[in-house]
Protein 1
Amino acid sequence: MSETTKPSLLGLEPDALPAPEGQPYRRRQLADWVYLHGASSFAAMSNLPASWRTELETGYSLIPFTRSERFRSHDASVRYLFTLADGRQTEAVYMPYSGRKTLCLSSMVGCPAGCAFCATGALGFGRNLSRAEIVGQLLAVAVGEGFSPREVRNVVLMGMGEALLNYDNALGAVRTMIHPQGLEMSPRRITLSTVGLPGRIRKLAAEKLPLVLAVSLHAPDEETRRHIIPTAHAHSLDDIIASLHDWQNAGGRRVTIEYTMLDGVNDALWQAEGLVERLSGLVAHVNLIPFNPWGEARFRSSSRVTIERFEKVLVRAGVSVSVRFSRGRDTGGACGQLALTRG
Ligand code: SF4
């Protein structure tokens, strides 16, 4: 089997990793090489029998990328562009802030949601990433930055793609992240981002995992929202909000509402008031995100004054809110921009 057709070990549940007959303890040793040491070859796994290492080498691969490129930003974030076995590309971002290692990972090549302000949306949909390709981003970044994959404490699945449309692989990757023999992360530190798919939100609620759910609302009224997210007509705002109530009624945690501030599009005071109304009865935190301009974007960010005025309406109504500046502006900062500019 060639290197690119061999299945990656990262696609397996950590407690389903292979082990030689009669030596189940080798499975944990192998898991430690992969998820604790971030080994990039089977040859490096020095406490495993040489014959078994050869066997593993013949049947499996590890990180499933043919190339990783690293772009450092002035604000200390680092963007990675990965080339997959079929030549397509996807991205991840490492954000080393406040002493925490946070990674933003992709769930797809491109994205079918087509949000009008997003560079990934402009790429269109390429394909879903496999479980191994999602977990592989985390491992490749840890190896690239020189720390153990198990040191990563925060993951946001907010890079390229709509994670809930790649449900099984995204959830599979989350299971590797929280597995005690995998990356040992707390599910409370994993954020799954969605454009708002009520059916999938309800399905996720039934998993009973205390993940953070982030919903890209971007507007409180259908007309503006459909202008920003052309595919949004498939689900009404009423149904999306109802699914968030279902999420919380099923024990789900506080919901994060993502709201990208677009000049003259969704930043009027009546829209702030509309957002307050939409969120009534929900335990939610709103992130107001000044738009991060990129090459062909046809939007501009709302001004600081407008954002502060919008924020005040939410604060006065008792809505929890913060203003988030996106990172990595000087390295192709908008999600998907690296892949877009590199072809
Ligand atoms: S903002 Fe997210 S959901 Fe929308 S097109 Fe970009 S990657 Fe897809």
Protein 2
Amino acid sequence: MSRLFIAVAATAAFSGVALVGCQTQGSTAADMVMRNGYVYTVDGQNSVQQAIAVTAGKIVYVGSDEGVAAFIGARTQQIDLAGRMLMPGFIDAHMHPGDGGRAMTLCDLKYRTMTRKEFQQTIQACLDAEKDKGPDVWLEVGSWDRMGMDGLDGDPDKSTLDALKTQRPIQVRSTDFHTVLMNSRGLAVAGIDKHTPNPADGKYARDSAGNPTGICEDGAADTMAAVVPPATDAEKLIQTRAALDAMRQQGITSFFDALSGPENGKAFTTLQQSGELTARALLAIKLDPAAAAADPAKTIAEAKALATTYDQGEAKPAPGVSMRHVKLFMDGIINAPADTGAMLTPYLHNTGTEKAPKWTPGKNVGDLYFPPQVLKPLLLQAVEAGFDPHLHATGDRAVRDSLDGIEYVRQQLPGNGFRPTITHNESVDPADYPRFKALDVTANMSFQWAQQAPSTVDGTSDHLGAARFARMEPSGSIARAGGRVAYGSDWPVDPLDEFLALKVGVTRSGDPLNPHSYGPKYAGRLNADPGLSRAEVLRTITLNAAEQLKLENVVGSVEVGKFADLIVLDKNFMQVPEAELARNEVLLTVVGGKVVWAKAPFVGLQATQASVTQ
Ligand SMILES: [Zn+2]
């Protein structure tokens, strides 16, 4: 498949097709024409057209059914959209496809809110299903809804896992990837005891005697995950294929891997070479806070060496691999019971009783992993080396420090066109809303977090207090202040369900029929922060995401000259009743002019396309 692609691209380079505005140059027969559609372009006016033509992976015409006729030749593949909505492919500008593909192969708790007993039963069933595994083989468990369990039964510890019938070491990862729960055997195998110091960017929870409880947060959770032997190359390819398949079905044509390394670089490059890469891969390199504090120049030089290995340079119609972002975790998460997101003022804790709680400010203001004196010179060197920074910040202190760091680099390097992003932005001080626009910082948001859910409501509302809870997930406020909001699913922190997220982006409420929303207890709006319009949310997952990733010249809208990254929807997102916004499907996914996913009534187009390009 990749050979075909190269052949087509080479033909295009010498064909000299003139591409001017929206107008046809007339005579050249296109590879593909789609017509009779509701073509939602995401151009400057959000104009709606009827038809497009594609040649050599690029859009060569956007306009009327009459106008596209001139592009139809004997070898042109013609697709009748039958009035359906065609739009730019989704660009998911923050996700973790390596973990997503991997989660599909673990003992999977499936994001379900469970009691401690259900949790034990499910993990025991996984153990029982693997009776052939020896006593030293790790059991890895994924997609644990820690916050939901905390609301039902309280937070578990190692004893919850020690009660299971097994000798095997066990580690359980929370859905948000910020916590790992270990059993006693796992802690012993990992060599963690009361004498083990906490890492700079996390902690081992301890009992009153200083012994680890089994709960490992942030950097400590990452250390525990690293104790498990890594996937073999063959396993990694299976996981990466699974991730790409999930993306095709969701209509994702470009994705930002927010926490990558050589393993993902290698896997995506291998699949590209075998013609299996069906989305544009942009991979970010994580910077370690302790290493960066000790020697920022060395940290950046190592990142540069890794990027040089995998970054393929300028984008082409066929999907490629890019590695030109660095990722920094400024803090943890603002959700109870973790309370590790860095806040300007303390979290509240209960000084009353369970029946008559009294929520009062405590001492905990969360954890800041890159203090300003480390952050500022590090960001400066990263930008000077050509990286765009992607900063994880959930708490209002972490967001402010990130903005301050970016402001410093803007002052030091006037005219430098770097594209910084702050991702998550769950709690932002209103004074900082206008700074996203002023400093040209993209606010990457995961809209599905703006629905009422165990993670946002139970515990978290009490720990934040009413004033901060009232402004949680401020995507609307940042957009109203002129900031560029781009969407990222954060999959597999949440299930990959782009239409649910877009629905929440508009309504700030879930969908009672969706398994990834929650029950009647969580009905209604999250808070009073304004929702985005339908046009705005579609822009966050297309052109705004392209701008975040510096891809706006080649993808993000349906315009002449751009790559043909396109999706066709079952229902018209701009016209369905609001309650049905999440009940939609992608029927056709096209990347660089090539059909990579098709279902009824477009089944068979994939094979047809291959024969056409032959
Ligand atoms: Zn993430």
